[in-house]
Amino acid sequence: MNYRHSFHAGNFADLVKHALVLWLLRARQAKGLVTVFDTHAGAGLYDLTGDGARSKEAEAGVLRLMAADGLPETIAALAAEVRAVNGGASETRLYPGSPLLVARALRKGDAYRGFELNPPVADLLVQALADHPYTDGRAGDGYVEALAGVKSGGGSGPLVLIDPPFERPDDYLRAAETAMDVVRADPKATVAVWTPLKDMETFDGFLRRLSGEVLVAEARLRPLTNPMKMNGCAMVVLNPPAGADQAAQEICDWVAGTLGDAGARAEVWRL
Is the pLDDT at 246 greater than 50, yes or no? Predict the structure, then answer.
């Protein structure tokens, strides 16, 4: 199974990922200026009515989010951003990826550096960021470029997002190795890695490559009985800031409890 941003924009996994990214960004901003590196930035903005979103997963994800009431604070923050990107309209046609979500929140002195390996998608990334200062979107191997940026002193204690499409057989390995290399290069860095949950053997193999302070936040929409389906997703955070456990639990509880099947569950734990 691979995971292309455009095919799955606005699905349940995006809600988990982006709600926690927003929380992590704001937690980091509360302590000072922040530089964000995004290894697999994607296009930045997605038209949910277009051919690229033909999986229709947004109907079971962001469209249900936008129709829901009584949202917890962490989920409501994402809903507010989605509503703003759509100009406050009742129809949710556009969905913002992490580049645009981060770009909209940057202050003077903050910075966003996003990388995309697919040249046509990199062009879309540049377009999505065109009106946002303090951002830089470009073509490149994000694993290499983000680590190089951290090593060059690109912001003290940066926030690094690793969100591969898992189209390559070495994505789990490279994601884990890059995450560890980042925190070795800058022990104050926070690294957030998104992964699908298909089967526990694959996920456990990924986790065994990590060490240090590691928060694991899982949202399972169904039991892990079919390794060909994305049964859930996880956000794995190295050097999580204070309060991250509670924020992740709130997010995963809402997604699993609202969007999941009868066997859905949320788990937040530390390695």
Answer: yes
